[in-house]
Design goal:
Strand content: 15-25%
Number of domains: 2
Radius of gyration: 38 Å
Number of helices: 9
Largest sheet: 7 strands, antiparallel
Distance between the termini: 60 Å
Helix content: 40-55%
Length: 337
């Protein structure tokens, strides 16, 4: 069994991962928390957040002294909420969910925060901040607020936010955690499905023949490479003036090809473009299985030239224009069987 589960560290990480999606520990704690305690903590946290928001608005409005007093009141409400939790933990029918720290110097609210997972050093730092504020109360007038006092104000707001994040889960009832569990599991399943779909999309190539080219004549949709595989010998893929290039057909899934028929371009009614020298490459298993060099005369009868291939698992056909008649090269149709 130990070999199946792995090391204790792996087991702990697995439990943490599972709990992240199922909220089982949170749900267990919520069921042990009396509703009266939950309401009391919710009320204190609500007032704490309200006063913290008021403190920030007062600070933005240029009243730092009033903001300091409001922030200190918000911190006191958060501590009162924590105090309620410690008293609730000690009450009958609601056993402690974490061992109480051994340090007798800690206040009940500090013990509750440590039980909620906050680092003891941070908890003690909040206590030191409160002692400093008790010995040196904030100034009453805005003009007396120094940069050092503003720094203390921000420390008060940070301490309140830290306490809030630690004890807010106590305010959530069991059905609230069940809803969160469903939403997170749905999110996880959606993420897995989306990841699998993306992986399939990135690695899957649809069936068919897909054509591309090095370049084309003109800027519009005319004379594009798709015109060389549309089954109509009167539509053509044309290259820019006096330029070599290639057109490639990707075939999925790969198949055996017996022969290839190539119909030269002529650019009717101007009759000024056609391929002269060319190279046909047949690719199979990611390498060139056959090369065919050829030459085509200029003609307007659109009679295809046939090449015998007889290659299995062909995945690509590449037709390379090396030289041309008159203004440029091209091809009207490439057909394989």
């Amino acid at each position: 069994m130990a070999q199946l589960l792995g090391s204790p560290l792996q087991v702990r990480w697995l439990r943490t991962f599972v709990d992240f999606f199922t909220f089982e520990q949170r749900l267990k704690e919520a069921r042990l928390t009396p509703e009266a305690l939950r309401k009391a903590v919710r009320a204190h946290i609500g007032l704490s957040r309200q006063r913290a928001e008021a403190a920030e608005r007062l600070l933005d409005a240029g009243h730092p002294a009033e903001a300091f007093r409001m922030a200190l009141s918000a911190l006191e409400e958060a501590i009162q909420a924590t105090q309620s939790i410690e008293e609730g933990i000690a009450s009958p029918g609601n056993p402690s969910r974490a061992p109480a720290p051994k340090e007798n110097s800690l206040e009940p609210w500090q013990k509750a925060l440590i039980a909620k997972g906050i680092n003891q050093a941070k908890v003690q730092a909040i206590g030191i901040l409160l002692e400093d504020l008790a010995e040196h109360p904030p100034p009453s007038f805005d003009r007396d607020i120094t940069p050092q006092e503003l720094e203390r104000l921000h420390r008060v707001l940070h301490a309140r936010a830290l306490i809030d994040s630690a004890i807010y889960p106590v305010t959530i009832a069991p059905d609230g955690w069940i809803r969160r569990k469903k939403r997170r599991l749905l999110w996880f399943v959606t993420l897995l499905f989306g990841t699998a779909l993306l992986a399939w999309w990135l690695t899957h190539e649809p069936e068919g023949v897909f054509v591309s080219a090095s370049s084309k004549f003109g800027a519009g949709k005319e004379w594009g490479p798709e015109w060389a595989v549309d089954g109509n010998p009167k539509t053509e893929w044309l290259l820019p003036d006096h330029r070599s290039g290639w057109i490639e057909l990707r075939i999925h899934p790969p198949r055996r090809i017996e022969r290839v028929l190539i119909t030269n371009a002529c650019n009717e009614p101007h009759f000024d473009r056609a391929t002269r020298d060319y190279l046909l490459e047949v690719w199979s298993n990611q390498k060139i299985a056959k090369r065919i060099e050829g030459w085509m005369p200029f003609s307007t009868d659109r009679k295809p030239i046939e090449h015998e291939i007889k290659v299995d698992a062909v995945e690509r056909l590449r037709f390379i224009v090396r030289s041309w008649h008159r203004l440029g090269g091209g091809v009207a149709e490439i057909h394989f069987e």
